[in-house]
C-alpha cells in the first residue's frame, strides 16, 4: 500500500507542476541554492536534518463529545485529531499530504481514495485567481456516536465545525458548519488506525462511491483513483478558465430596487442554524435554494404567483399554478429557480440568469454543479478584489452550511452567476 500511495502522490506532484507552472504555491519564494561546503558531507547531513524536521502546524483543532456520548480512548481520540490536522495542513499548504500513515494494512483503497480527495482540493485551490492557501485554521470534531463492532473495530460518527483563514483575505473567518464524518477504527500492530473514513458530501461520494457498491469488497480497479483525480483536475481547470469569458448581459432597469444589504444580513443570520418560520428541506435533498429564496424575499423581492413563471411559498403543498397557494418548484429547486430567473417577465423578479461571471455584487446568486447539472446555489455576501477587479466571491449557503466562504474553493467547479436587478410591477 505504501508503494502504491507513493506512486500516486508522485503522479499528483508532476500534475501539480504542470497546472501551477512552478514548484512553489502562490506566495512562496524558492530558496536560493546554498553555497558549496568546504567539507561537503557535514553540510549534506545538516540539510537532511533540516528537511526532516517537522513543520509547526498552521492551525489547531480538537475532539469533543455530544452530551451523553461516551468518550473514546485517548489513542483513538489522538488518531482522529491527527488525521484532521493532516487534512487541514494539506489544504493550508496546498500540498496533497499522505493519509496513508493513518490507515491500517488492508485498507489501501480507503487510503488512496482519501488521498485523491486531499490532492484534488489542494490542486483546485492552487489553480484559482486568489491565494487560497491558509494562514490559519481551527476545527472542532464533535463525536455524536460510537459503536464497538463484533470484530473489535469501532465505528465513530462525528460532526465538524471549522474556521479557515485564507491568505487572500486572512482577516475573514470562513466558517463551515455540521460536516458529517464516519470513521472506522481498528487495533492493528499495537496501535489504533483507520480502516475507513467517509465525509458525507458530494465530493466524497463522487470519488469514493465505488467502494460502497455491492460486490466491490471495498476495492476498486488498479489506477482508478489516479484517473479520477486527473479527470477532476482537468474539469476544474476548464471551468476555472471559462469564468473569464462566460455570461452576457448588463445591468437592467427595474421598477423597484433590491435591498442587497438586507439579503446579506438574512443570509448571515441563518447559516449554521434554521429559521423556525420556514421548513428545512435538507432531508429531501437540500435546503440551499429554499434558503436563497428566503434571502431574496428578505431583500424585497416579492413572491410571484402570476403568469407562466411563478416563484412562491404559501405552504408546503407543491403547486406550480398561478395562484397564491402552495409552494412552487422554483422556490426550493435549483434548476427550477434558474428557469424562473430566465423566463420571468412582467411582475416579480428582474434578473439576468447567466451574467458575466465576475460582474456580481453582494446579494446576487451563484449556481454550482457539474457541467450544466446544477446541484447547489449560494448567495454572494462580499466580493474579493485585486487592483479594483473582482477575482472571487465570498458566499453563504445552507445544506453545506458555509459563511464567508470563497466560492472558488467549492468542489462544484461549474458556476453560473444570476444577477438580481430588482423587481417589476
Explain what the structure shows:
The chain is of the alpha+beta class and 425 residues long. It is built from 10 helices and 11 strands. Strand 7 (365-370) and strand 8 (373-386) form a beta hairpin. The longest helix is centred in the N-terminal third of the chain and has 20 residues, at 74-93. The chain is globular. The N and C termini lie far apart (65 Å).
Primary descriptors:
425 residues; alpha+beta; 10 helices; 11 strands; 26% strand; disordered N terminus
Ranges where pLDDT stays below 50 over 5 or more residues in a row are 1-41
Beta-strand residue percentage? 25-35%
Largest sheet: 11 strands, mixed
Instruction: Estimate the helix proportion, in percent.
Output: 25-40%
Q: What's the tally of helices?
A: 10
Shape: globular
Based on CA atoms alone, the radius of gyration comes out at 24 Å
| Ends apart, CA distance between termini | 65 Å
Report the strand count: 11
Order of helices and strands: HHEHHEEEEHHHHHHEEEEEE
> What is the averaged pLDDT score?
89
Structural class: alpha+beta
Quick overview of this protein structure:
The protein has 425 residues and is of the alpha+beta class. Helix content is 31%, strand content 26%.
Question: How is this fold's topology laid out?
Answer:
Elements: H1 2-20, H2 41-52, E1 60-65, H3 74-93, H4 108-126, E2 134-148, E3 154-166, E4 174-188, E5 191-199, H5 202-208, H6 224-242, H7 260-269, H8 288-298, H9 329-332, H10 334-343, E6 348-355, E7 365-370, E8 373-386, E9 389-397, E10 401-406, E11 414-424
Parallel strand pairs: 1-2
Antiparallel strand pairs: 2-3, 3-4, 4-5, 4-10, 6-11, 7-8, 7-11, 8-9, 9-10
Amino acid at each position: 500500500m505504501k508503494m502504491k500511495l507513493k506512486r500516486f502522490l508522485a503522479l499528483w506532484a508532476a500534475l501539480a507542476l504542470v497546472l501551477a507552472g512552478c514548484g512553489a504555491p502562490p506566495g512562496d519564494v524558492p530558496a536560493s541554492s546554498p553555497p558549496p561546503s568546504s567539507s561537503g558531507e557535514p553540510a549534506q547531513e545538516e540539510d537532511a536534518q533540516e528537511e526532516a524536521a517537522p513543520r509547526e502546524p498552521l492551525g489547531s483543532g480538537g475532539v469533543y463529545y455530544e452530551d451523553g456520548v461516551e468518550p473514546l480512548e485517548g489513542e483513538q481520540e489522538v488518531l482522529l485529531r491527527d488525521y484532521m490536522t493532516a487534512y487541514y495542513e494539506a489544504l493550508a499548504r496546498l500540498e496533497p499530504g499522505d493519509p496513508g500513515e493513518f490507515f491500517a494494512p488492508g485498507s489501501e483503497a480507503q487510503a488512496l481514495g482519501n488521498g485523491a480527495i486531499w490532492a484534488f482540493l489542494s490542486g483546485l485551490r492552487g489553480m484559482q485567481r486568489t491565494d487560497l492557501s491558509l494562514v490559519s485554521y481551527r476545527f472542532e470534531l464533535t463525536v455524536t456516536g460510537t459503536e464497538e463492532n463484533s470484530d473489535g473495530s469501532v465505528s465513530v460518527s462525528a460532526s465538524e465545525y471549522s474556521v479557515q483563514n485564507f491568505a487572500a483575505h486572512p482577516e475573514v473567518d470562513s466558517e463551515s458548519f455540521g460536516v458529517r464524518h464516519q470513521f472506522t477504527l481498528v487495533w492493528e500492530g499495537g496501535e489504533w488506525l483507520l480502516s475507513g473514513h467517509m465525509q458525507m458530501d458530494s465530493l466524497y461520494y463522487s470519488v469514493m462511491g465505488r467502494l460502497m457498491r455491492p460486490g466491490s469488497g471495498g476495492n476498486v480497479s488498479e489506477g482508478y483513483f489516479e484517473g479520477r483525480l486527473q479527470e477532476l483536475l482537468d474539469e476544474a481547470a476548464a471551468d476555472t478558465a471559462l469564468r473569464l469569458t462566460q455570461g452576457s448581459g448588463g445591468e437592467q432597469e427595474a421598477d423597484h430596487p433590491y435591498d442587497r444589504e438586507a439579503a446579506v444580513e438574512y443570509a448571515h443570520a441563518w447559516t449554521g442554524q434554521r429559521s423556525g418560520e420556514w421548513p428545512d428541506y435538507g432531508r429531501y435533498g437540500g435546503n440551499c435554494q429554499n434558503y436563497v429564496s428566503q434571502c431574496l424575499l428578505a431583500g424585497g423581492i416579492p413572491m410571484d404567483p402570476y403568469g407562466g413563471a411563478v416563484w412562491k411559498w404559501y405552504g408546503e403543498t407543491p403547486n406550480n399554478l398561478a395562484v397564491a397557494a402552495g409552494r412552487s418548484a422554483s422556490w426550493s429547486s435549483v434548476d427550477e429557480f434558474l428557469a424562473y430567473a430566465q423566463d420571468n417577465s412582467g411582475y416579480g423578479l428582474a434578473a439576468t440568469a447567466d451574467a458575466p461571471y465576475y460582474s456580481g455584487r453582494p446579494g446576487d446568486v451563484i449556481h454550482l454543479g457539474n457541467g450544466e447539472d446544477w446541484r447547489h446555489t449560494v448567495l454572494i455576501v462580499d466580493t474579493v478584489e485585486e487592483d479594483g477587479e473582482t477575482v472571487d466571491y465570498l458566499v453563504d449557503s445552507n445544506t453545506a452550511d458555509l459563511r464567508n466562504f470563497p466560492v472558488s474553493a467549492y468542489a462544484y467547479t461549474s458556476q453560473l452567476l444570476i444577477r438580481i436587478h430588482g423587481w417589476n410591477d
